[in-house]
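@channel anyone free to eyeball this complex?
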Amino acid sequence: MTADLTVPIVARTLDNGLRVVVSPTPGLGVVAVNLWYDVGSRHEQSHRQGFAHLFEHLMFQGSRHVKSGDHFALLQGHGAALNATTSFDRTNYYESMPAGALDLALWLEADRMAYLDDALTQENFDNQVDVVAQERSQRMDNVPYGTVFEKALPLVFDAGHPYGHLPIGNMQHLAEATLDEVSSFHATYYMPNNAVLSIVGDVTEMEALDKVERYFGHIPAGVAPDLALPEPLAALAEASRLDVAEDVPSPAIWFALRLPADSPTGRELSAVSLACSIVGEADTSRLHRRLVRHDQTAMSAGLGANALIAGNSLGVGSVHAVPGQDLDEIAAAFDEVVSGFAADGPTQLELDVARAQAERDWLDEMSTAAGRADALSSCALLFGDAGILNERLAMLQSITADEVQQAAQLWLTSAVNAQVRVVPSASGQETEGAGVAERADAAADPDSTGAGV
Amino acid sequence: MTTQLTPPVVRPADNWKFPEAAEDQLSNGIRVLAYQCPGQYVIAASLLFDIPLDVEPPDKEGVAAMAARCLSQGAAGRSAEEFADALALCGADLGATASHDAFTVHLSTPVPHLDKALRLMADVVESPAFDQQEFEHERQLRLQEIEQASAYPQHVAGEQLNAALFGDSRAARPTGGSAETVEAIERDDVVTYARDHLQPVTATMIIAGDFGNVDPIAQVAQAFEAWRHIGRPATARKSVEISDSPQVVLIDWPDSPQSTLRVAGRAVTRDDARWQALFVANHAVGGSFSSRINTVLREEKGVTYGASSALETSRRSGVLNVSTAVRADATAEAVADIVEILTAATGTLTDDEVATAVRAATESAALGFERAEAVTSRVEMLLAQGLPPDHVDYNLARLREVTTEAANTAYTNVVEADQLTVVVVGEGDKLREPLASWGYATVREVSPKQR
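replying in thread with the prediction:
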């Protein structure tokens, strides 16, 4: 690569504990603001599943100096693209805009960090409970296979585990929640010393830091929540399976896997990710070639890793069977592919392909100010060091065939242990299998486990 | 340090300009447009063939889409798997699509592998294998895909809207063909399609990214210059009819917790003089988060996760399309609300709404074209719709001039709120009566094909 791909990074911490990361790209014309708060669905109380995401919606309903709806209206009216997402580990608020609107964005973010309470109303609260219920319907309940992954999670993480439920959560829990809980959630998690603010794009380091001090400097620090991370769990040793009949066009299997947590070096999870990529990503993968091309028993087959930090990460596999094909045989073939890979390790060609794909993904992620800001916030919040971003690609490229094979042996050979099998119901009526508490959620794409505004 | 009580002043965005094209024509007729985009190390390239879907034999609709699928399943002596490996080693993606206006091959690749990846792209148009077995497998996958898609309410709503809106035009039927027409397609049909229609004289290569010291036009020439092929002359494009009578179409979806809705009607093509004013009007009515439609359905009534309208165009058609999914028991009220908002917008767009929409549409340009792929997609869309590649700057200049009066006039002239097509995918037993009582049009029930 001829170009220098190092992302320039300036990191500061304000007196109130707000961690700030600035990465100037002179002449871009665009600037991205990205806030990661250290709160996600894993911090929720067990009877309030989905609350972090509902709360994220309420952050758009106004604050002391901002009218309800104005956050979107003001920024979009100046050409900004903005949204927020809630995931297992964190809540992310972001906007990209013409450089001249940076002050506006920072002011809006600071106002809702400091003074959300003043604008909370029962009416807005009830409205967003309704909106979130419709979000769930649209993404999950009214979509074939939409709730299968939600059903697979409890097979690898028990109910008390931070990753035992999806961020979209339980609509009944949300219906029972109160406005007071919103205030208290804000007081507990929304404070400068529980967040990272990244600013990337057409702004100088000095300007950016001055503006951050101006808009965020006066917000008092709070008592940051101190939540210990759970102990890592080994790969699932026993088989656990749930069979459901639903209104779907063809049979399918979802697999859930415990994987190693992401970490500052990220080496072990990266080895697992490369293994997943070789086994289950795109049409060069072993699963695709076996199940879709050779056996022709599946329309699609894949395996991917979702990086998380609380003890474990989460792996997701899925196969959409060709109608009429036998799921036992498909699961056996899936197992054979994964076990075969663990036994033999990657070929040189496979390793080269996985590295090329990883490099390309990294370049894609870095190709926008918003992408760089998000990656910087992630490294700073999850690992305490934004600078890790600049080490990640080289680290990934240095992972050896042996490491990939070991990762597969440790973490992927149990891939078929947790399965949800879904078959078309004769009547078109949904029937729940044993052990499923609620109607559930998202697709097999590991990235789709989050929920947005 | 004190808190600021009012929003900070926003410095107006600089007059952003679309990147300038370096243009050339290869000796075989391929037009090349290259855009230098600093910092974009994943190069995007689109090879666009100016060929409409109208050329497909009527009993074999979907042959263009099948050609698109099969194109990268082996070429120039490489098997499908060898070809996939070669591409993946470059970190590249290659695929093709057939739209109503054009057939396009897309490539994206990190810049260090550009020469190799362009060679592979040339291989698929110059000497695609179209292996019989690969063809059979792709056709099977395509048929399964059609069956799968029919279980997704969003997909069904889109297909049924097209069927109701576009009369007997090709646009009324699925771009990729139906199960019946795909069944009828043979390998030879795909070979014939590619031979007749994929030829250098009708092709434009659009390429964008940070090329560094590399000369993109020379790279394209090196890969494609030797390609000599003469197919059939271009065919005239057929016109597209768009319904102008009110219609309500109901697709029964038992036990659905939500109804999926489309409300659409005739608008204008991008070359119409009213386009920019209508674009601004649409932004205020349904084209943004703070629009009238989303404000009522989401922020006031809470019956949806989101509702928006878009101006959808092809070279010969322009449609205003409102799409949303709403809580099942709020369905009839929601469609009535949408039609009511579209009706009430006539002549009522305010100075504030219009100024905001103009700013939003123009100041978002730098952001919208930050990625190389955004640049190539836009040029591709413009050429496919018969517009020049420098249309972006022209369009932005025209958008800046849109006044409240112009936006109101365009909206009033174009949007006929009493001639809309409404499509509802939801639980028939609960919706027949309320939709009939609404009285917009006779409720026509269409049975979903494969449920």
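from a first look: The mean pLDDT of chain B is 96.
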